[in-house]
Amino acid sequence: MLGVLTPLLSGGFFGGIIAGASRAAARAGGSVLGVQTLDAHPGDVSTSDTRFTARMGWDTVSGFLVVTTAVDDDYLEALSAAGRPYVLVGRAPGATPAPWVSADNAGGARLAVEHLLAHGHRQLAFVGELDQADVAERYAAFRAALDAAGVPHDPALAVDVPNMMESGGAVGARALLAAGLPATAVVTGNDYGAIGLVETLLGAGVRVPEDVAVVGFDDTTVGASLQPPLSSARQDFVALGEVAADLLVAQAAGVVEAGAPVRHVLPTVLRTRESCGCGRAVLTAPATPVVQGTAEGPGSARAASRSGSARAASGPGSTRAASGSGSARAAEDLGADELVAELVAHGSEPRTAQLVVAQLLARLRAAVEGRPDHAGLLASAARLQPDQPRWETSAVLLAAAQAFARAMVEELPEERRAAAGAATDAVVLELAGALTRAQLDGEVQRTATVTSALRSEYDITLELLRGDQEGVSLGWLARTPARSALLARWTQVPGELDVVGGYERSGRAGRGGQHAPHGAPPRTRVGVVRTEEFPPAELHLLVAGQPGQMVAALPLHGRERDWGVLAVVGPVESTTVTGREGYHAWASLLGLAHDRAALVAGLRESEERYALAMRAANDGLWDWDLASGRVFYSERWAAMLGRRPEELTCTPADWLELVHEDDAPALEAVLDQCRLGLVDTFEVEQRVRTGDGEQRWMLCRALAVPGGGLPATRLVGAMSDVTERRQLEDELRQAALYDTVTGLPNKALFLDRLSLAMSSARRRRQDGGFAVLFLDLDGFKVINDSLGHMVGDALLVRVAERLRGPLRETDTAARFGGDEFAVLLSGVEDADGVATVVSRLQEALEAPYEVDGHLVSVTASLGVTLGPGRYERPEDLLRDADIAMYSAKARERGSWAVFAPSMHATAVDRLRTETELRTGIERGQLRLAYQPIVDLRDGGVVGSEALARWGHPERGLVPPSGFLAVAEETGLIIPLGRMLVQEAAAQVAAWHREGRVRPGFRVSINVSNREFWQGAYPARLLEALEAAQVDPGWVAIEITETVIMHSAEQALPVLSRLKQAGLRLHVDDFGTGYSSLETLHRFPVDALKIDRSFVARLDLDERSTELVRTIVTMGRNLGVEVIAEGIETARQAERLVEMGCEYGQGYLWAQPLPAAEFAALLAGEPLPGVP
Fold first, then answer.
1. In this predicted model, what pLDDT tens digit does every residue of 800-814 receive, in sequence order?
2. Residue 863 in contact with residue 777, Cβ under 8 Å?
């Protein structure tokens, strides 16, 4: 079995190639699979516009003929990689070498140019689709012929057109006309292009050939019938297919090397007619017949037999043999062999042409000799061109018959010439009648075929588009010549087809390959198959060894998707005009049928969905005939209004009298607009009184008929109960303007009221008149994180209650989110007027709260702006109040400040610090420095405090005071602390591993308020230590009294967990907070760190000195270590030792040092300066 990959399956060119391949395959006992690769398109398109990738039939055929641009180079490379041989037809090989067969494009184009030059033309144009390989070769030969003749060629006279159909030729004609028709002769890439060119030129008033001579290429029947008849270069399409198929068979059999890049060229002749300026049809053959490649290879003899050369008349069965030995010289002298060659060149079969000429000579000789002849001349002559009869073939034969008759009569004595002339004239006349009848019968047959095809396609179209089976039954194929067929659809898996339908010529159709019993082929496999296995081998068995029959594979394309493949067993179609009849049309219609079925299914689904939606929507429908005044109300409409259907009068009063009096005017107005054609649709909500007297909101939608600005004659609509939606909207409106936790106005409502206050003040032209207070609760985040969001929300509710207390009805308190509140005070002239209110607010907010059994405290930092002043937007005024609040918080938590312009620069600097700090953390700019903790007794280093340092790329080393407060406020302290813990843990582990420190050496890590109260802090800290393989005893956690005592109950389990894990707990800045004794009593403290402020005043301030002595004594009595911070002088160290303090740190020994410098410091133990 041979495969043919071709853009189209029908027509003189593509169908002719398949016909030749079918002959060759039949001789080998096989069949042909024709695979169409061009999608269905309306109008004329280029046959190179293919996107075919399916591996159709790869497992069932021996190899492929690839016709022109049926597939791209990637497909050919895939064939080669899979070991499938192929032969190119009308196409040169690309990157992959392959044999190829083509007509002598160069010779035909050269003959056309030489002929036109002989007519005296010097301005020659070329029109064709230059992307086509054959056309490009013809154009190259066109230019070479002009060069050889010394005639210059203007590149502007080469017109590239979009396709090879009539529309492409029309494009070329219009281009030449637009350029002023600069050429006197045109050679086209093919006949159909020439036809479109000639018809367009004639329509523009240009005479052909008087003004422009035209020569085509392919010598089609349509071109020969054109007026004027078209001169054309003739190639034998059937021979192309036959030679290519023979070559493919030889490759598959191993007779010739597969893939050898040899070109096989078949001769081309020129048929001149009136379009070039000739008065009658003349055949011009090339000076030397061209057959390149393996001249003795497969198919070369058959190619030569159809090439039109005189050699076709030699050998057994020639005119010399047929006319008998006694008349052989006479036949040769009469030019019988030349006549045979010319008939063959016109498309007649060589053997038929030989037989007809031999019978003609015998019949004429019998007439001359006065004896009867029954050689069957008339019947043979009628078979010269059974497929596409041409008048010029008959004209050639009749002219030759008259010449033969004259020559024979002139050989006779004078007295016999009259009788012999009359007898031969009768033979010629009888021959003319037979040829005319054959020609007319052929035309009638062609007309009947076309009519039948049109009727069949019309019936098929109706059957496919009316049906709901998407063509699955394939019963419509009974109207076609198809013998058998299978329909397969693509599955969701690429490369898989599902065989869903079958057909047999018996007239019975089945599904899934269930063929009729009479004459049915072997049962084909049902269900899913691979693309390579389709069409199945069983279909090929139906046409094996039968020339003129094939299996056609037709991809089914829809508008937006590929549906599948239709495999058809039927005749080869080589006589259709455009190539889009028959198989192509069936595939196109079946693809559209699938589209239509999908559309119908979608519409049906949509209708069902709409019906279900209407039921789900529970709408009441109504239909008002404005002419009669009658209204149809659905049962649901009546039920919605608490009415029974029988209670309705079917008039507008059933509805309009129930509408609320406030809503009725709007409804009546829009109804009047519809009646007048002013609007086509409307949507209005109204309150309607139901049967039990309840007022419910109803949404009414309506459509006016006919619409389009015309007065309505009918209104159709639906009514929905939207009462719950209206209630929800009211609730949402409340939620959109008020805080859901506290019930206070939210930011949106606050800004709206602030905007009104600003407008009112401007109208009165007063600079004062109101003030904005921005509040932030100090300590709320700790409570929220430690006690949970439920407690946090309850605390916010209590804060909101206290916030309202000191305010007047004209004032507005609002919550913006989190722990941020704002207050709009009206009737305020200056800052003094605000102070009293602020004091009352702070006093109310600072009192302890009892929330869910917890006693908690918060303070409020406030910022104040007075308005309207210079402000244009309420957002700007609020922004400055926020800046003032941060300024107050930075100075002292729980304080308040009035905005001053200088605060803006501070706020900008704070924002910059926050942004740069975030970047610094991400880029690792923050590192640890280590300050030694020294044993005051021997100068040994027993530990170190890890302190954060920021190496800013522009500002240099930034001290902790420059960024820690911002980190704490913004939450950046969390990722910063996590990063520094990991670094400290890794460093202390390295020092212990390297033996640089004492066995008990530990590093102290500071923990901020926000870090400590983060719920996951203990777990994350222990995970970091475990990841660094650090003994928890090597780490001390430093935490201030303030952090612990913020919520002692919640702090105790956190500290206990850390202590149980083996970490040491140090109380930092001891003595500066509150409840110090409580700290020592309740919490598992390991060490107290005396604040540097007390150490600095030793011997300078008696109270500080006694306080230090007390702390040391307290620690010693309780077994708690005491570490003094900020030791800068030897005297301070001496005094601490005298008091019994064991450990200290400070600049006396070292500033905080990078890890490398700290390691060097350890090498110098004991440190100097110890008393």
1. 999 998 898 889 999
2. no
